[in-house]
């Protein structure tokens, strides 16, 4: 933080005063030159005002940049902090596009408004002092100036609500565009394999982008039209002072008219800037409201606040799912999918395989077991104690999970620096010793095949040293050699070391291996059969 808000306001006001002083000193100096005199006082005032102007502008630019970026930093971190503590289903309902738009587009709008705010204060001060100067030169010119500038300002701001509504509609279309952009990036393989899908998707992208552009064109066009009218009113004021004021006041001299005209020219830019800033502040207010609403939605979903450096729970005896039902929220297209009722017991040291067809509810069962999806009804018990909201974070600390849509981080976030020998041993076990390594907690490369990245995710999971390992179709991307090794060597070894493992899989042909002392469950239509 480079300075306080009151100090910034003071410097902005000082900048406006220095600008008005430059005008007054130039006019006084010009009058002295016409009279054939040298005005040292006016020249001195001009130099002092100029130095003051330079100093205040330098301060304002630095401070507004620092302050605005500090505001953006805090807002971004607050939003993402709320995201990380939200619940999975609620986050899916909000959608990634809205969150991305908030931390990019809306924060950019706030930055622009913050940068302009100080100059608005400066312009307002300038207008006030120049108005006093015009009143001193000619009261009639002052009255006409107030009438014309007031009418222009009222005309410009009469459409403020329409512009705010237009900006809000444009923001909604921008969010739809972000969603289409995610479709293009996340569904790249699918659209490259299917030309009709690719064409229809890009047509949708084009339509959404055009709609957003049309709304912006209409909104900004109206704003610019009002701005042109207001600017024309400023030039009308200039004409009134030069051509009309002398007709109403015989005491007004040519020199006075020149000074008034110069004052109006000086203030036109300030008025123009103030009107633009007010419009920008309206857009910033709308952006701030959207971000506030998003943060409120995110915070309202938090049932167990994350925080601190909570260590993993060292162990457990049994986890029980008692008549657990989880129902995905209904959508306009129809009712959401339901899993359950489920009755399931996981004892420490178990190895459990869960099989079933696509859409049978296996992955959802794993998310419920991990504590990522709170049961709609029924309960989860840990060592006989029901897991409530307050105990959810402690319960989750038992789990390491690699889901089918896992994300591999570039460094070992939240994991204490592992011993070099342990990392090397795991890399050899996973046949990755010649592919990548970890240096100061950072992977030297993640440029690996899909199966190798899954193995690297497993390495990270094992380094977490949590008692329960959940694997969702982990072997699906492995080559036949490593898939066989996974079932015949890796799983028995991990389970033999005391790790409790639940594996969702389609590889039923491996599950009868005598080395696997495992429980086998099958799911169909959201239930164990």
Notes on the protein architecture:
This protein has 529 residues and is an alpha/beta fold. The protein folds into two domains: 296 residues, ABC transporter transmembrane region fold, CATH 1.20.1560; 211 residues, P-loop containing nucleotide triphosphate hydrolases (Rossmann fold), CATH 3.40.50. The protein has 14 helices and twelve strands. The strands form three sheets. Strands 6-9-10-3-11-12 form a six-stranded mixed beta sheet, sandwiched between helices. Strands 2-1-4-5 form a four-stranded antiparallel beta sheet. A two-stranded antiparallel sheet has the order 7-8. α4 runs antiparallel to α5 and α5 packs parallel to α9. The chain is elongated, with a radius of gyration of 34 Å. The model has no long low-confidence stretch (mean pLDDT 78).
Q: How is this structure best summarized?
A:
The protein has 529 residues and is of the alpha/beta class.
Radius of gyration: 34 Å
Q: Could you say what the CATH topology of the largest domain is called?
A: ABC transporter transmembrane region fold
What portion of residues belong to β-strands? 5-15%
CATH superfamily of the largest domain: ABC transporter type 1, transmembrane domain
Q: Which CATH architecture of the largest domain?
A: Up-down Bundle
Percent helix range = 55-70%
Q: Termini separation (Å)?
A: 62 Å
Strand order of the largest sheet: 6-9-10-3-11-12
What is the CATH level 1 assignment of the largest domain?
Answer: Mainly Alpha
Please mark out the parts with pLDDT under 50 across 5 or more consecutive residues, or reply none: none
Average pLDDT level? 78
Largest sheet: 6 strands, mixed
Report the strand count. Answer: 12
